[in-house]
Amino acid sequence: MFSVVVPSELLERSHGFVENAGRPEGYEAQRTILKERDALAPTEGLDSDNTLYTTQPSIRMDATPAAFSDGWTECLLYPDVKALILTTPGFPSPLFRPSSRGYRLGPSPNKGRGLFTTRKISAGDLVLSERPLTLTPAWISTRVRYLKELTAEEKVQTQIYEWEQTFKVLFDRLHPDYRTAFMALANSHQRDGSGPIGGIIRTNALGVRCLQTGRYSAEEARTLRRGIYSAVCREISRLNHSCSPNTTAKFDVASFSYQLFAARDIPKGEELKFSYTALNALAEARQTELEPYGFRCTCSACRTPESDARRALSFVFPVETIEDCLEKLSLLEEEGLQVAEEYCETLKSLMNLYLGRGDVHNASKYARKLASRPWSPLADLARSYPLHFNRSRC
Ligand SMILES: [Zn+2]
Predict the structure, then answer these.
(1) Start and end of every SET domain (predicted)?
(2) 290 alpha carbon to ligand 1 midpoint, in Å?
(3) CATH topology of domain 304-393
(4) How close is the Cα of 295 to the center of ligand 1, in Å?
């Protein structure tokens, strides 16, 4: 009989220097994963609990990155997620790209390398879009039979080891150019038992939360990472962290790509950064969240003593009056949190409050501002707002 490892133990995956890291003795694991040759094959009849190696979008076996510049992704998915992808309207649509490249890779002080703008980029602009190199579940079930009593840390190490074996099969499916790009990414998990592939995934992956199929509840997704996927990207994964990020990223299923947007106007030469942590977390909690990445953040928010109080207030500040909303926007802007959904919610409140006053000019102004934040679900609402089109009257 195989027993499933208790998930709560695995949420505390090891990081930093771990004595005795590596594969423990005394267990057997059973992995049931299917390798797929036809990416368009229907998923009916597949065991819904088994994961599936699949290439998306579907490509010819002899495809090259040069001939197929939009690229493709090696995925490890549950069959119902593959069905969701294949039935998404427009899938696979071509990548939507900016009119010209506006960034370069370069050295970042104390952070290895990062991406820097090569021209001014305006708030809301698409900086880049790319198909991930790999897409894997944030948590993979591996059924394990313990042959002796293992410590909690050893159980974690069994899971980390088994994940590496699973990732290795995915890695071997990558085109050689993609393998090189993958292995060139940073790895902050070199002394905790993570394998080289799992370490790079843990260091570089962006969360994909829009592939939920109803298999898991919102609570399971939030607390156990069920149904959440991890995307490793060639370019976006290069972004360093800031607690006041100037970009944000969104996964678009139809084009199967991660899109990076400017959260505010970014001058030429500035480093592009996004947040690895919860935006509303305070400084100490953010540093704890960053521990697995192996650095302490020294961004302006982390160096400013009054930041914590302002950040906490900015998330709970009311939006009942126009004056409230303007004050809230100001607080969020001072904290550099234009990426926060609360910022968009406040723009929406302003739009409605001005409309309630019959002030079409200002209602349109905030509708346009909201519509130019394409990463937010509220942007579509603003775009459908008739006042948004009354530009000539503003
Ligand atoms: Zn910081």
Answers:
(1) 101-277
(2) 9
(3) 1.25.40
(4) 11
